[in-house]
Amino acid sequence: MTTRTPRPVRLAGLHAALMTPYDEAGEISKPCLARLVERALGHGLDGIYVGGSTGESLLLSVTERELVFREVAQAAAGRGALIGHVGAIATRDAERLARCCAASGYHAVSAIPPIYFRHSVSAVRDYYSAIVQAAGGLPLIIYNVPAMTGIQFSLADLKGLLSLPGVAGVKQTVVDMYQMEQLRRAYPDLLLLNGFDEMLLAGLVSGANGGIGSTYGIMGHRWVEMRRRLEAGDVRGAFEMQSRCNQVIDLLVELGVFPALKYLLARLGVIRTPLCRKPMASLGPAVERLDEVARELAREC
Ligand code: MN9
Description:
By secondary structure, this protein is α/β, with parallel strands linked by helices. It has a single domain (14-235), classed as Aldolase class I (TIM Barrel, Alpha-Beta Barrel). The chain contains 12 helices and 8 strands. It has helices at 30-42, 62-76, 91-103, 121-134, 146-149, 155-162, 177-186, 200-205, 216-231, 235-255, 257-267, 288-300; strands spanning 14-17, 47-50, 81-85, 108-111, 140-144, 167-172, 191-194, 210-213. The chain has an 8-stranded parallel β-barrel, surrounded by 6 helices. Helix 4 links the parallel strand 4 and strand 5 (140-144). Helix 1 crosses helix 2 (62-76). The chain binds 2-(acetylamino)-2-deoxy-D-mannose (MN9).
């Protein structure tokens, strides 16, 4: 019998934002979830961010989100960091999801602020404190994504949230690299994760010590190589890799990031259908332009 030494958990690393795959009837596909986990960890990524925007989490029921947390934990089997996104409109749902992550062996939880209603700063603080309480000692990573939530955190807002016990980091999905640098300057040890893949290199040189991205699931090997080049001092080489990845991202953005990513994963044989939950739009025409990308990725790994 061989015993496998578990990899040390590295939260300050590169994590695939996991998609939620469905079967033809639109129900969550457990075998496809397991294959997505294999692909991400097989590419040398440090972990998986489960149930975020990329996971269409706000289009799933709380019970489905719990199911995804459990399935992924089982499939990953201690081979990487697991971060569960538990953000919800209602604090009680976020608490329930945080409890599920704690019980399923996750290493951290993360949450968007509560959306739709306009809450006071102190109500948002209470929401995050409630999640920390429910997460039973797991560190909490604030998910700052104003383009999706409509909630613009100033540096002072973020500092206020970071002063809460249990809040350990920020997933910074903003184009403002000045704010990234300001966060790093204010908190030399902060877990600061870059959120827009098309700016990963910019984020890393501006102070991020890791990243979370939807495209890591299709080209994790390229992102790992990009980081390797940067760490080796080869900034030009890292930039070339970022540019290669961005050519793919340009096409994804044009066609619709999530359905286009699912199309690629289906072409690569990882998932069965490119379906997304409605009202998320399906792929439009001209998808054959993705086939060349799929062939290229299949050749690389
Ligand atoms: O989690 C993703 N963020 C959002 C990270 O979807 C808001 C990114 O990976 C983007 O999908 C990607 C394309 O814009 O950078």
